[in-house]
Design brief:
Elements (H helix, E strand, L loop, with lengths): L12 H18 L1 H12 L9 H27 L2 H6 L11 H35 L3 H5 L9 H25 L2 H8 L15 H23 L5 H31 L9 H7 L1
Length: 276
Amino acid sequence: MVRDRADQRRLNPIRAVADGLASIPLAARAAWGILAFWTLMLAAPLVVPMEGAVSTLHGLGLWATGLVAVGALLRLGVGQDMEGARALGLGAAGLQVGAAELRIVWAAVLIAIFLGLIGVVLGLMTLAVFGIAELNAAAIQARDWSAVGPVWKQAALAIFTLGIVAVPVLLLTRLSLFAAASVARRRTVSLDSMAIATGSGWPLFGLLLVLAAGPVILGLVILKGVIPAAVAGGLTAILLPWVWAPFAAGSLCGAYRQLEYWTPDAAADKHYRDLR
């Protein structure tokens, strides 16, 4: 295994965003089959009543379709072109189920278990600290902040709460490249993906904010009732597979290629340098 110095690796989020934009037309050419099927699955509730077993089967099918699509998009993002993606197992029109998909699922399960344990610890810490603070619970419920307790206690608890919230956000940021790493390294990469983001946490966090902006804006538009539900469903069925998912996968893979330090052996050095 070969490593370079972490302080020599810095993420350029603008370059990563450019990689994401370039991935949109590439995905349309190389993974059109699975993206079209994903669109149909997303649009199905607009024309088919989702009740009982139909809803369950649709949910499972949508999950499986999304997994296959993500696997195809990550192969394209890591490989950077159709030839490189095929070397990583990309199927015709993006239709494939291989070891990469299983690795992504297993890594996601391990990360979910880890974050769940962290959440339990943080929850217990929060209960303990707020219990020790002995604030006026009735005043909190009534939103009478002047009667809650001393101002210094409220300020200290506010800072503590921000710290508690920051922990999972920091972890999610550091873990966000696990799927790209699992595809590129051809092995399950879960918690060890945090090392990839060493020294680039803030730029990577900024990149994640950019990627989240689109879904958040669309979600707010839907919640506010700016557009009819049927139109919103149709837009989601088109924009998610054909625009946002390729853009997000391409951006994260672009970030991964900038930050990756690992090669399986010395003979593979040239291949991994080419990925950058």
